[in-house]
Amino acid sequence: MNTSPIAQLIQKIIKQGWMGKSFLLLITLLAVWRLVVALQENPILFLQQVVNGLQLGFVYALIALGYTMVYGIVRLINFAHGDVFMVGAFVSFYSITRFQLHTWAERLFPAMPDGVSLIIGALTVMAASMVACALLAVVIERIAYKPLRNAPRISALITAIGVSFFLEYFAALNFVFSPNFITYRRPIEVVTWAIGPGGITTLGGGIAPPPGTILISNIALIIILTSIILMFGLQFIVQKTRIGKAMRSVAYDKQTARLMGINTDAIISTTFAIGAALAGAAGMLYAIAFSQIFFWMGIIPGLKSFVAAVLGGIGSIPGAFIGALIMGQAEVISAAYISTPLRDAIAFSILIIVLLVRPTGIFGEPEREKA
Amino acid sequence: MSKRLLVVFSFLIVASMLLGACGPAGSAGGDTIKVAILAPLSGPVPTFGVSTRDGILMAIEEWNAKGGVLGKQIEAIVADSQCTADPAVNAANKVIDQDQVHYIIGEVCSSASIPVSEIAEQKGVVQISPTSTNPSVTLNPDGSTKNYIFRACFIDPFQGLVMAKFALSQGKQTAFIMFDQGNDYVLGLAEAFEASFTAGGGTIVGKEAYTGQDTDFSAILTKVADSQADVLFIPDYYNVVNLVATQAKERGVTSTLMGGDGWDSSDLDLAAADGGFFSNHYSAEDTRPVVQEFVSRYEAKYGSKPDALATLGYDAANLLLAAIEKAGEDDPAKVKDALASLQYDAVSGTITFDEFHNPIKAAAIMQVKDGKVIFADSIAP
Amino acid sequence: MTKKFSKSTLWFLGASILAYAVLEILISTQILNTFWNTIIRIGGVMAIVSIGLNLIYGFNGQFSLGQWGFYAIGAYAAADVTYRWSINKSADGLVVLFLATTLSGIVILWLRKKLANIRGLDPLSAFTIYLAATIIMSALAWWVGIAVTPAVTGALNILPAPVAMQVVFVIAVLLSAILAAEISFLFGLPILSLGSDYFGIATLGFSIIVKILLDNSDTLLGFVEMKGARGMVGIPKETSLFWVFFFLVVSVVLVRNLLRSSYGRAIISVREDEIAAKAMGIDIAEYKILAFVLGSFLAGLAGGLYAHINGFLHPNTFNFIKSFDPMIIIVFGGLGSITGTVFAAFAWALILEGVLRLFLPQGFETWRFVVYPLLLLVTMLLRPKGIFGEYEIPFLRQILPPIRKPAETPENNSTVEAQS
Lengths: 371, 381, 420
Description:
heterotrimer; A: ABC transporter involved in vitamin B12 uptake, BtuC; 3-stranded antiparallel sheet; two-stranded antiparallel ribbon; 14 helices; 5 strands; B: alpha/beta; Rossmann fold; 2 domains; 5-stranded parallel sheet; 15 strands; globular
């Protein structure tokens, strides 16, 4: 055994894991250096990109909340969640174009101020798609997941993939929804504000924004506001209500929960319904944000939101939220300052690196040993 | 239990194979001319496949109403090829081996047309792709032309060149290019535009990639707004253009949007793309009867204006059927020669084929203005 | 010699040869045309990928969605080698890949011995060391390879052209499988320490990253002939039914023999109960990586074969949505059943591409993907453990049946259960 000081040092470095740590550190430093350079070059542009990332992150957060909820309780990666989200977008589309649901308040009470009736109308549309999605999810749960509750977990995952395919291609049939890209008419007009040292100006009609300003639209504000409200609402349901308590107990130990007199089947159905309702709301907001709906629209946002939920520590509601924000920033910032072709590759590399450092995500609890 | 299952399943599958193998092959020949349509009817872009198929079917119906070709009715066989190599190969093999067709119209995407073209070439089946712009569709890897393969659309370099010329003639000096890194159609146009635009004295101030499934373009568009380019060149299909144009407005982008024939669709968001220019195969304002008849008939039949895919599908079918008639015989070897020397008055202009089996035709430049698409310019090859 | 083979072995080999012979006869008599021929070959390739995944997931319990990424790596690597041989008339791809894989392989094996002496080495550090070593070796391989190429090209040219092509093809397929295995080793080293679902997501990320790199293979990776998203053309179509059958049988025998060995029992014990396995003195990390590397080897092998079926590769084929296909196949056939996997792979290809294509009437082409998930759902609901469950034909059966926990309670949501 060689015991010279240098050899000992090398042994120590290797043993304490410094090689791996310095490797990660090197990558992180490179990225940080790139961002600092970018910030110095054009701080306003950088800030604008951060705002862009924030908006995207909140969109992901909406979907990720539903994912994390279902996973937390039944440990099922519900691949159909993204497609329920798609159905939500389509339902809101049809309730606007076919049934004019967003104008019912205005038609019924013409005296009401425009703003109020619009808000009521938009909320009604959202409620419609939330209810539709919740119903759909309960049906899916009953038909496709419940019979498999005692089967290996992977069987349920495969049926989830099956349900996902089915929803997509069924929705693409002409008499169901449509195989086409549909332009979504927003119930709300878009207003973009340019915020800068010179105050706030409203943008419109192809006028370039004044230099040195940051742009933010009312749509972005609505999305940010809604996802914050929904997150706190969800947190409230899970933490403070009786049903939330039951959910947590089912998540913790299903059999014991049943022994304690909890109707686990009903609780699981409720979980699916709540998760799907969130997806319905997300679908509508997503459609408003991007003004295009399509039968495959759920796949990629669904995947990325799921990844965001994993990043934050799956099963944790604040975790999903934070994970989604990180995912949004990772995508936008890497597209802006590192490489656009590698945008998704970088986002997924971040996921892998975070998992290496914290194997159960940022907010995830270490998995319990089996008793 | 499982053993019996194994036997039963094996038997079922072998039986269905043999049934499939023997069944349709027996009914070959007959008094119809079979034409196969390969289009992506499932997968990510069924809407493109449906448009193309509708265009092709309309042409075939018109010929059948006129009494068919060579006195025989034309039978269309539609196969789903998903815009992907494997299903496209299977679909092609199916129509060639099982249905015994001699003519294929399709596929839409180059990434599916290329493997199909190799099969068609090998088996001596005439293939005309309505919309595949990749040069490799009609060319062998060594640069020679495939005998049996044709296309009805421009190849990538041409539209890029046209739009670069047009942008420069409009006094545009700087351009920003956005392209889908996973789509060879978009990639080809972007590269050709870049080359021609810089050769003509313009400057490319930025070039950014995205993927076909992206919906959020805020990072790139913020860069575009910052670069203050005169032109934002986005040669993608209308669905992406809609997303980009909408978000560009919200990001304070004032550049003129420009693109290729992928824009041509009744689903293009005219309000968002207002002020944009794109190259196209024809102008709906063209007074030639073939154009006017096509547009009005298509609208009557399908309830919307034809998009570029439907137009090219229609042209491709017409070209093929005219060539069969010219050859005077249901023989792919003769039809391919007829097609190579054909001159046909199609919707997208009077078409002849060059030595690489690409059509020679002029491009129209269209402008989106006040909720309408109007003719702006015409540029000959 | 024959005494060494048991009855079931002879049965298996006989049946395989018979099946192959019957198929060849049917093809030569044109009863089975190119349509069916292609589908059968695709089915065989899918069977090989799925056997690999079954080893990783079905037998070792590691929920991997990265199989498709290794399949893509194998396909593109093999295609590049044969492309350079058939179009550029140069063996440079073959030589460089050979040197890179063997040198890296030797160094990895050497380092493993050395690093095994260091106790408490964390996987990330090990990963860094291996990564540095393989990068150095690949650079060396490149440098030496370019120098040696003309000699090898000359030597191969002595053979008649078709024979040389076949030789290059088979070596290329094997090398690309080794390449996939080595990459999976590097990647699996840090990742395999993650919990099951987290491992799944990390491997899914890997598949997606591979796809993005392939989209930009001509610009970012510098392989101009791969043409990025334009699709790689000009790959010789060398994958005949014989090669698919040959490699499929080899894969089945390989996995079967592995599982019958002490290694195999250790691999299965990791799936059954990690803690108990650890208590028995089984090095869990070691067996996880063994299964992962072998599974990826088979994925790379299948990829190499796939590339030479159509002679065309496009990154969209390696889209993450398709990465669920092998997973669907192994669950469909029965997790932990090789018989089921092989059978399900062929059934999958024949039903989805063959039967549904033929028997759906005109105008209903789009219904193919409505019917397919319904079939999947119904099968899963009727037979939640897959069509075959854990049934194996006698040749593939374990000598000792795997010991199962009595009355497993899947309702309990804990790590250990999650991997069963």
